[in-house]
Design goal:
- It is a single chain.
- 42% of the residues lie in helices and 24% in strands.
- The protein has helices at residues 3-59, 80-103, 140-148, 153-169, 189-197, 208-221, 287-291, 306-312, 315-318, 331-336, 341-349; strands at 117-124, 127-134, 178-183, 200-204, 228-231, 234-236, 240-247, 250-257, 264-267, 270-282, 294-300, 324-329, 353-356, 374-380.
- Strand 9 (264-267) and strand 10 (270-282) form a beta hairpin.
- The longest helix has 57 residues, at 3-59.
- The radius of gyration is 31 Å and the shape is globular.
- The protein starts with a helix and ends with a strand.
């Protein structure tokens, strides 16, 4: 075989193998395309299924987290987005209610609660205004305000300093971007004053009687201000209708009891009588809403339900590290709700908080085992 023929043969062999390689590669490519198409179809199916599930959760049963009453659906909970949306809806509805109240106050002049209240002077840190309270002799908080033209200076000063310091530490120039969560608003001392300063105060109050006064004070002091929201619901670790018990000697003070139906009982030196049935919500459903806000301060004064709420909202202290938390503590009232006071305190101290009775910025810390009834200030210092 001469060299020319050998060259031609090798050339033909080379072309043959190239062609074979192209065919093999094309075949493999087509197979890979089929494989990729199959993966895409599976992923797309999963995406559509999840979107449909979310649609059902959001629209089929008004944020209940359950649909079609199937056994499987009962394990489905509100997702992060739905909880935030639900909270925004309740806040919007509450604002519209208080705005409507201000615009139509004449309709309420014959309300049963109108004859229980008086307008009196209030002053703190050179800010003066008038505030509605119960008539003298009906409520010890009202009596104190009528007598002193103010309120607990220590408590007010601690809240004032905490909000001011938070704003400076985070370089927040607009006070409305700093949030204060007031649980158990009573007459509205804090939403009235701190709302007037420009902070955003979101308050929960279970008593319809107190809620009436809260709306009166909103119209009197901060009318149409969108930074004050008053929500007429109690807070706990469940959602249902519960009994509201009032102190016989103090109209504005009440205790929630959800799992019993006594007409009256004695606790913490007071006689309590069933007065209303009120709606209760889980405050934990509001966590996604507050997670997107600058929540600086939480105040808990809810007559023994403090531990139930914070156990349900443990993310406030384990994840979001709200810097300042104030809690009224009655050992007798916590026991009435089946909670251990020491365990309640440890919930904070085990997660980087220090507790004392003097204020948020005091270093006279108290160990959990030595805490007694009183007003407690929890400050986050880190683990």
């Amino acid at each position: 075989m001469d060299s020319v023929n050998l060259f031609d043969k090798n050339k033909n062999n080379l072309e043959y193998h190239k062609n074979q390689a192209v065919k093999i590669n094309a075949s493999g490519f087509l197979k890979s395309l089929k494989y990729i198409d199959l993966k895409l179809i599976i992923l797309f199916s999963i995406l559509i299924s999840n979107l449909y599930l979310i649609y059902l959760l959001r629209h089929k049963n008004n944020f209940s987290g359950e649909f079609f009453n199937s056994s499987f659906s009962k394990i489905l909970k509100l997702d992060y987005f739905d909880k935030a949306k639900m909270a925004e809806s309740i806040i919007k509805e509450s604002f519209e209610n208080q705005k409507d109240f201000c615009e139509n106050q004449n309709k309420y002049l014959n309300n049963q609660y109108e004859n229980m209240i008086n307008l009196t002077d209030f002053r703190f840190k050179n800010i003066d205004y008038k505030i509605y309270v119960y008539k003298e002799g009906d409520n010890y908080m009202s009596d104190f305000i009528i007598r002193t033209k103010g309120y607990d200076v220590k408590e007010m000063s601690n809240f004032y300093d905490a909000l001011e310091y938070y704003g400076k530490a985070k370089n927040i120039l607009n006070k409305k971007d700093i949030y204060f969560l007031d649980l158990g608003a009573n007459l509205g001392i804090y939403p009235s004053y701190f709302g007037k300063l420009g902070y955003t105060v979101i308050s929960f109050e279970a008593s319809p009687r107190n809620y009436y006064i809260l709306k009166k004070n909103y119209c009197q002091i901060n009318r149409n201000s969108k930074n004050i929201i008053i929500i007429n619901r109690g807070v706990s670790n469940q959602e249902k209708i519960c009994n509201y018990y009032t102190q016989i000697t103090g109209l504005g003070n009440g205790m929630l009891k959800c799992d019993e139906n006594r007409e009256e009982f004695d606790n913490d030196g007071f006689h309590w009588k069933k007065t209303f049935e009120v709606p209760i919500i889980k405050l934990s459903n509001f966590i996604p809403y507050f997670a997107r806000k600058n929540l600086a301060l939480i105040k808990l004064d809810i007559e023994g339900s403090e531990a139930l709420v914070m156990q349900d909202c443990v993310e406030f202290i384990t994840k979001y590290r709200i810097p300042y938390i104030y809690s009224e503590l009655s050992i007798n009232m916590l026991n009435e709700h089946g909670n251990n006071p020491k365990e309640y305190i440890k919930l904070f101290t085990d997660n980087g908080y220090k507790v004392n009775k003097e204020g948020f910025f005091s270093h006279n810390f108290i160990p959990p085992e030595k805490v007694e009834s009183g007003n407690l200030y929890f400050t986050y210092y880190g683990n």
